[in-house]
Specification:
single chain; alpha/beta; Rossmann fold; 6 helices; 28% helix; globular
């Protein structure tokens, strides 16, 4: 199978204090560490597993700054065969639509059976790039994918739904799969593989090579920390006392 994997270099903010920078449109990143987006690492691993089973080629694609090449080299060290960086600095503000449009232009001459992405990025949380890219390419897609099996140009896909339900889809290839975390166990790159990847060429694409930049995109007006609201009230006492207080709260909020 010939596969394309979309990956993103993102700041690690889970354990960090996030602050808005002076522009009001980004966060302060000076003391943050960066790594491959978590869901994308699962997408990459799933592509490698499919390649190990069926053979083929993996192309890793990232829209990012020059530092994103470090992330692409990790993808090469893990099992990707080639890598493309789309120059973030050439395209100004981005949203999910414009990101998908730029990726579409970057891969338009590449033969592929499937495109794998993470279901979301931990920095923007758009959940849009995979489905939007599929619509632009005119091919089927599935989101929150938790299992992929491929045979005879068909993919049997399991995806998560609300309420703990799992949907089973049969899809024709080519298709786009937005992969959920937990679908597999991403491998670590060996030191030898990392050293080998350091010498591999990464194709860099800018505005000169992309003839049709997206014309429709939203404009980011402002980022802000959500205001702290009222905290939860813990009800204590006997079951009768808790029930009485619950009823009082419901009445006070005008719900009954």
């Amino acid at each position: 199978m010939d596969l394309i994997v979309c990956i993103k270099r993102v700041p690690q903010t889970a354990e960090a204090e996030v602050k808005i920078d002076g522009s009001g449109k980004d966060i302060v990143k000076d003391r943050l560490t960066f790594d491959m987006n978590e869901a994308d690492s699962y997408a990459l691993e799933e592509a490698i597993l499919l390649k190990e089973k069926s053979g083929g080629n993996i192309t890793a694609v990232s829209l990012g700054s020059a530092e994103a090449e470090d992330t692409l080299r990790i993808a090469l060290a893990k099992g990707a065969d080639s890598a493309i960086r789309i120059k973030l600095e050439d395209f100004g503000e981005l949203d999910g639509f414009k990101t998908a449009a730029l990726i579409r232009e970057a891969i338009k001459d590449i033969k592929f059976d499937a495109i794998l992405t993470g279901c979301m990025s931990t920095d923007d949380s758009y959940y849009q790039v995979g489905p939007t890219l599929a619509e632009m390419l005119g091919i089927p897609h599935a989101t929150l994918v938790s299992k992929i099996e491929v045979a005879d140009q068909k993919a049997h896909v399991h995806r998560e739904l609300e309420g703990g339900l799992i949907e089973h889809l049969e899809m024709s290839l080519p298709a786009v799969f937005a992969v959920q975390t937990g679908i597999n166990e991403p491998r670590y790159a060996s030191l030898i593989a990392i050293r080998r990847a350091a010498g591999k060429e990464i194709k860099v694409i800018g505005k000169e090579e992309i003839s049709s930049e997206a014309k429709l995109n939203s404009t980011l007006e402002e980022l802000f920390i959500p205001p702290v609201g009222e905290r939860a009230e813990i009800l204590t006492g006997t079951p009768d006392e808790v029930s009485k207080r619950t009823a009082e709260i419901i009445k006070e909020k005008g719900l009954i």
